[in-house]
Amino acid sequence: MDCLAEFKNKKTEDHRQDALAQLCNYAKQAFREQLDRRFIIGFTLCLDELKLYLFDRSGVLEKAFVLTISHLGAQKSRTTSSRVFNSLSRTARMGSHHLNPADTSYDTQWIIEVNGKLYITLRAISIANVEIMCGRATAVWEVVLFKDFQANRIDSPILVLKQSWQRLSGQEPDQRLSTIPFEQYAYERLGKTELNKLIQDAAYVRTEDGSELVTTFEFIRKGITGTGTSYSLDPVGSSKHTTTGSRTTSGSRGTKRKANDSTVDISGSIDRYAFEIFLADRDALMLGDRVTKPVSRTQTRILMKTRGYPLKCFKDLNELRMVFCGAIRNHQKFYRVGVLHRDISQGNVIIAICDDGSTCGRLIDLDHAKVTAHDESNVLLLQTTHCVPDRILSREMDGLVDRGIFVTEDTIRRACAPILSKLDPSAVHDEIVDACRSGVNYLIDVYKRFGLKSSKSQLLTPKDFRWDLEFQDKPSFENHQPGDGNRTGTAPYMSYQIIDPLGNVAHDAIHDIESFFWLLIHIMLTRNGPGGSRRDISVALAGVLDLYFHGDPGTLSRKKGGLFLFSKKYEDAQAELSNLMVHFDSYFEPLKNLVQQWWNLLYFAHKYEAYELWNIHANTLRILDKPLPGPSSAQSEQTNAEVNRREEYHKSTLDAIKNSTIAMRPQPRTPEKRDRKATSTASAQPVDPVSQIAGHGPSKKHRKEKATGH
After folding, report:
1. Where is the composition biased (Polar residues) (predicted)?
2. Could you tell me the CA-to-CA distances from 295 to 127, 287, 446 in Å, in that order?
3. Same domain for 133 and 22
C-alpha cells in the first residue's frame, strides 16, 4: 500500500471533513496491519479540490496548497501533484520488508535489531496501540536472540522488547538524553545494580546507514512543521489560519512557493503551509480551536528482562493484593531517586515472573515519567520558625481531655507543625493561634475517622497517629517544565486533580497512588474472578463505568472528586464510596475493608496535605500488606485454571524456540475485530523469520543462510 485516497463528489465543509476523517481511519488501519510502517501518505479529492497529507506519530501534516483541477489544466495539475507526492515519498523509508507475511499482525514474526544484535519475536504481547497517531504507538513482543533461536536453545533468556515513538521529557536533565532513550535514563537513577536487573539494552532507532535518528520532524517530515494550531476546516480563501512553516513564509495568493524543491502553484488555495491535526481518540477527529505545540517523536527500542502476565490475570485475591504492593514499592523506589511515574494503568502494572518461578508485582513503562534535575535538592519537610506557644498548648490539651481524647504534648505539636510550616516567617500572633487551632482540628479529625482509642492511662503519641516521618525530605519537581503535547497519563485511572481540565496542580506521588486506587476499583467493577474473567456489564454498571472511567475529563474529575474534596462533608464522600462499592463483584467482598481504609487515607492526604501525604507510600503499603483469608473452593477452581494457563503459556514459549515457530498468544481468544483474516494460536508450519526484519530488509548474509540452511 503506497498511498491512501478518499474521494467526494462535492467540496462543502462537511464533505471536506468527512473525507479527512475517513482518510484518518484508513491510515489507522494501515498502521495497525503494517507494524513496520513509519509514515503514510494520502490525499483527498473533493470534486476538483486536492489535498495531500502525511500521517505519522506526530499527527497529520497537511500540505500547504490545494490544487484546483480544471478541464484545461488537468494535465498540469496531475504533473504537479505527482511531483509533490514524490517529494513527500522521499522523506523516509518504510523500514522493513514483508516477503512472507502471516495472516495477522499477531501471527507475524520479526527480526529486530537493537544496538547491533538481532532478536526474533516469539509472540506479540501488545500491538493494540500501534494505530495511534499523536502518540507513542507502542508495540511489545517477547523475544530471544536470533542466533539462539536458530540453534533451538531453550535456555536462551526470554526478553521483552518494546518499540515506541518517544517524545523528549519536559526538561533535559543532561545531554545524555541525546544518546540514550529517556526510559533507560530514568532506570539509571536506581543505580547500576538495579538497572542491570531490569534492562538488557536500549537504543534510539537509526537509519539503515546509521547517519541519523528516525524522528518524525527531521527524518520523516524533513523539518516541515506547522505552527501548532489544531486543524480547523475553514472556507477556501479564509485568512484565519495564515501560518509560517519552517521552510516558507506566508504571502498573498497567486504566488509560488517552494516546498521540498517542488515549485507548486497555490493560486486560489487556503493561505497556509502546514497544520497539525490532532486525533482525540481512535474514532474521532479533534477539530477544536485549542492551540497545542507539535511534538517530534523518536523511534525507540528497549529490551527489558521483566516478563509477566497482565494484571487482570491474577490467580487469587492475595496475588492481586501482592502485585499492588510490589508495584507501589517500585513506585516508591523511583520516587526517592527523583523519578515520578505519572502513568499508572493496567498495562503498566504486571504480574512479573521472578527467577525462581514465583510472581511479584512490577511497575513498568517510564515513558511518561518526569525527573528532577541533577542539581535539584530535595525539599525538607516541616521547615518552620514557629512553634506552639505553651499557653495555647495547655489550653488545647484541656479541650481535648474534655472530648475524651488523651494525647501527649508532643502529639499536639506534631499536629500543628504542618499548618505552622505554611505560615510566613513574619506571621503575627493571631495567625499562629489560628494555625494551632487548625492543627488541633486536624488531630481530632484523624482520631475520629481512623478509629483511634485513648485513655488517661494510655496517652496517644505521634507514632499512634502514624505521624513519624518516613523521610525528612521529598523530591522537588517545582522546576519541571511540561513537555510539548497533551498532559500525560491514562485517563480512566488519573487522579481527579490531574484530569481536571481547569486544574493546575503539579503531579506528585499522591496522584499516582490515587491512580493505583482507581485501578483496583476498576478491576473490582469489571472482573468476576481470577484469570481475566470479565463479568457481564448491566445497564446500571455501565452507567457507573461511564461516570468514573469513560466520561470526558470534566465529568471524571467531578465524579472522582466526589469521593474526596468535592463533597462538602466527610459523610457525603463516604456515601459516594459506599454507593460505588455496591457495584463490586461479589468475588471481591474480602477486599472491601481494604478499599475503605485506602480511601480514608487518600481523603486525609488530599484534605490536609500533611503526614498522610508525606508518608503516602508507607501508609498505603501498611494497608495492602496484610494477607487475606484463603479462597473458597469455587475460587480455587478458577485459580487452578489460571495456574494451568500459565503452565501452557510457558510450555508454548519453549516449544516456539525448540521448533523454530511462533508461540501461542498470551490468552486464547476469538479473533479480534481489527484482524480481517482468521487467526490461529500457533503456526502449523515454522515461520521463516528472516523474511521479516524490522528496521531493514534481509541482509546478504541472512539471504545466504536461508538458501543454504545454515
Report:
1. 632-642
2. 22, 18, 45
3. no
Higher per-residue pLDDT: 118 or 236: 118
pLDDT of residue 48: 84
Nearest to 29 by CA among 6, 7, 45, 52: 6
Q: Which amino acid is at 409?
A: E
Q: Which residues fall within 8 angstroms of residue 172, CB to CB, at 6 or more apart?
A: none
Report the alpha-carbon distance of residue 394 to residue 436 in Å, rounded.
Answer: 12
Task: Let me know if residue 500 belongs to a domain.
Answer: yes
pLDDT digits (tens, 9 = 90+) for 11-46: 888 898 889 889 988 998 899 888 888 999 999 999
Predicted confidence at residue 379, as pLDDT, reads 81
Return the closest-CA partner of residue 411 out of 363, 374, 444: 444
DSSP assignment letter at 385? S
Per-residue DSSP letters for 79-134?
HHHHHHHHHHHTT----EEESS--SSGGG---EEEETTEEEEEEEEEE-TTTT-SS
Q: To the nearest whole number, what is the mean pLDDT of the chain?
A: 78
Query: Nearest-CA neighbor of 338 among 201, 187, 202?
Result: 187
The CA distances from residue 706 to 103, 336, 655, 695, in Å, are 22, 50, 21, 19
- Pairing relationship of beta strands 473-474 and 379-380 according to DSSP bridges: antiparallel
Structural domain contains residue 374 = no
Task: HSE, CB side, 13 Å, CA atoms: give it for residue 427.
Answer: 19
**Residues 65, 101: one domain?**
no
Query: Which has more confidence, 254 or 530?
Result: 530
Residue 637 inside a domain? The answer is: yes
Q: What is the pLDDT of residue 271?
A: 27
DSSP label at 531?
T
Burial class (CB in 10 A: 0-12, 13-18, 19+), 263: exposed
Grid cell 484482524 in the structure block, residue: 675
Whether the per-residue pLDDT at 481 is higher than 90: the answer is no
Is 357 inside any structural domain? no
| DSSP conformation class of 564 | T
Q: Are 385 and 426 in contact (CB under 8 A)?
A: no
User: pLDDT band at 68, cuts 50/70/90?
Assistant: low
Confidence of residue 434 (pLDDT cuts 50, 70, 90): very high
Is the pLDDT at 49 greater than 60, yes or no?
yes
- State how far the Cα of 175 lies from the Cα of 289, in Å rounded to an integer: 35
Q: Distances in Å between the alpha carbon of 222 and those of 89, 192, 219, 428?
A: 11, 37, 5, 62
* Higher pLDDT, residue 294 or 547: 547
Q: What does residue 297 show for φ and ψ, rounded to 5 degrees?
A: -130, 150
Calpha distance 587→100 (Å, rounded): 46
Quote the domain boundaries for residue 17. 4-91+226-277
**What mean pLDDT comes out for the span 530-540?**
93
- 3-state class of 460 per DSSP? strand
Is pLDDT at 686 greater than 80 in this prediction?
no
Q: Are residues 14 and 81 in the same domain?
A: yes
Residues in the chain: 710
Contact 614/469 with Cβ under 8 angstroms?
Answer: yes
pLDDT over threshold 80, residue 226: no
Tell me 547's DSSP state: I
d(CA 148, CA 156): 6
